[in-house]
Amino acid sequence: MKEGGATTYIPKSNRRYAEKLAQKKYYENRYEELSHQVKALKYYERQMREVEGKAENLFKHEEWGKLLESMHSVKREDLKMWMDEKYEGGAGHPENLIHKGSQGKYLRSKSEVIIDMMLYKYGIPFRYEDKLLLDNGIYIYPDFTVRHPITGKRIYWEHFGMMDDREYRNGACKKIRLYCDNGIIPSINLITTFETADHPLDVDRVEKIIKEFFCS
Question: Are residues 35 and 87 in the same domain?
C-alpha cells in the first residue's frame, strides 16, 4: 500500500488488516462510481422532463392530430370494421383488468398495455382476449388477436409475464404446445413474448416485433 507517496508493505501475518484496507479502497471506488451514475441519471431525468411526451402529444392537438391521423389509422375498411365490432372476450377474473389501454378497454398488465399502445401507434388492427375456437373444440382467449393491416392475416400474440414462477412457466409451455397442435406456430402466426422480474418487457422489443411482422 502507499501512504504519502511512499510504499508500505504489510506483513503476511497482518493479512486481515490488508484485507480491510483493500475493502476500503473498493468501497471508495464504488462510491465514486455510483456518485457519477446518480449525477448522470439526474441530468438525464432533467433533459427527458423537457421533451418527454412531446411527440405523442401532437396526436392530441386539434390541428396536428388531423395531419397525423393516417399514422394510426387502419387502411382497410373491413379490418377497421372488424376491430370496432363487439366480440365475446375475456378469459375470466375481470377484477384483474385494471390497466387502461389505447381504446378505453382494460388490460391485465402494464406489459400488455405496452403491446396495446404500440399496435395502436402503428395502426395495426387487433382485439384483446378475443374468443378463439381451436380445431380440437377447445376455446381459448389469446392475449391479442392481430390482423395484418394489408393482407388481413390473423396472427396471435401471447405475452407470458411471470416466467420466473415454475407453475406459471409450465402453464405457458402447455399453452404454446396447444397452439402448435392446432397449427398456430411461433414466429409464423404466433408471437410470443416473455418476461421475468429481472427482465421486463420493454417498448423497444415490442416495436421491433411489430415492425418485423406488420411493417415489412
Answer: no
Average pLDDT rounded to a whole number, residues 43-48:
72
Q: Do residues 88 and 154 share a domain?
A: yes
Report how far apart, in Å, the C-alpha atoms of 153 and of each of 116, 148, 166, 186 are. Answer: 18, 5, 34, 15
Same domain, 122 and 193: yes
**Looking at this protein, which amino acid is placed at residue 68?**
L
**Residue 74: per-residue pLDDT:** 53
Task: Say if CB 162 and CB 173 are below 8 A apart.
Answer: no
Cα(124)–Cα(148) distance, rounded to whole angstroms? Answer: 7
Instruction: Let me know whether 147 and 41 are in one domain.
Output: no
SS3 140: strand
Distance of CA 123 to the CA centre of its chain: 18
CA dist., res. 24 & res. 104, Å (int): 55
Task: Fill in the amino acid letter for 79.
Answer: L
Residue with more model confidence, 104 or 140: 140
Helix (H, G, I), strand (E, B) or coil at 106: strand
